Amino acid sequence: MVVDDENLVREGLRRILGTFEGVDPVAGCSGAAAADQALLHRPDVVLLDLRMPDRDGLTVLADLRALPAPPAVALLTTFDAEEHLSAALRGGAAGFLLKDTPPAQLEYAIKELARGNSVLAPRLARTVVRHYAGAGARGPGAVPPLPDSPAPELTARERDVLALLADGHSNAAIGRRLFIGTTTVKDHVSALLVKLGVSNRVQAAVHAHRLGLVPADPLAGDSAGR
């Protein structure tokens, strides 16, 4: 489901989503109608514009998260909206996508969200992690407190994967950078989540920075994508 106050944007996104295999864009609506439409159509994923005049994205996010069995919500934003990122993550957003995300990356993100994973545009990754790591966030999607035990022991390969994950790269992009298969990357990510005691990639990235497990300037690379 697409939530945006501009009809042209809504319909354009729905047309793009309709070209993705296995993706059914069930509805498009304004922010004011989002909760009712979500109850009616029960989407797995909602793409929500962060800045809307009739009802701002953070308020709509709260409306959607209050629903029974709420959908995964990804905020559509621009690079200059970093002041809202921490609040949206605390509010339970499953991720952030830039409005200029290429279709192939958008398809990947939608399918990851539907699987219960989090997504984060690489250009926003460092900003999100910086805000979230220092916010002491609580509530939906909050990062669990650091354990009293020493930092988990990670293999060299796990550290490589974690550094790229913390920079917002997808599994496919990590695989390309490290010359390993996507399935192997998924195995490493699953192991990292267990070792760090977290449930998603954003939480893993935050913990990695808190524990000093990745450099302040993670490995540079290509954008997340398929």
Structure description:
The chain has ten helices and six strands; from the N terminus they run βαβαβαβαβαβααααα. With 226 residues, the chain is an alpha/beta fold. The protein has two domains: 2-133, Rossmann fold; 156-210, Winged helix-like DNA-binding domain superfamily/Winged helix DNA-binding domain (Arc Repressor Mutant, subunit A). The chain has a six-stranded parallel β-sheet, sandwiched between helices. Helix 6 (122-133) crosses helix 10 (201-210). It is globular and about 50 Å long. Mean pLDDT is 82; it is low at 137-141 and 217-226.
Characteristic terms for this protein:
226 residues, alpha/beta, Rossmann fold, 2 domains, 6-stranded parallel β-sheet, 6 strands
Write the layout of secondary structure elements.
Elements: E1 2-3, H1 7-17, E2 28-29, H2 34-41, E3 45-49, H3 57-65, E4 72-77, H4 85-90, E5 95-98, H5 103-114, E6 119-120, H6 122-133, H7 156-166, H8 171-178, H9 182-196, H10 201-210
Parallel strand pairs: 1-2, 1-3, 3-4, 4-5, 5-6
Helix pairs in contact: 6-10, 7-9, 7-10, 8-9, 9-10
The percentage helix is 40-55%
Largest sheet: 6 strands, parallel
Count of helical stretches: 10
**Global mean pLDDT:** 82
Short recap of the structure:
The protein has 226 residues and is α/β, with parallel strands linked by helices. Helices cover 45% and strands 9% of the residues. Helix 5 links the parallel strand 5 and strand 6.
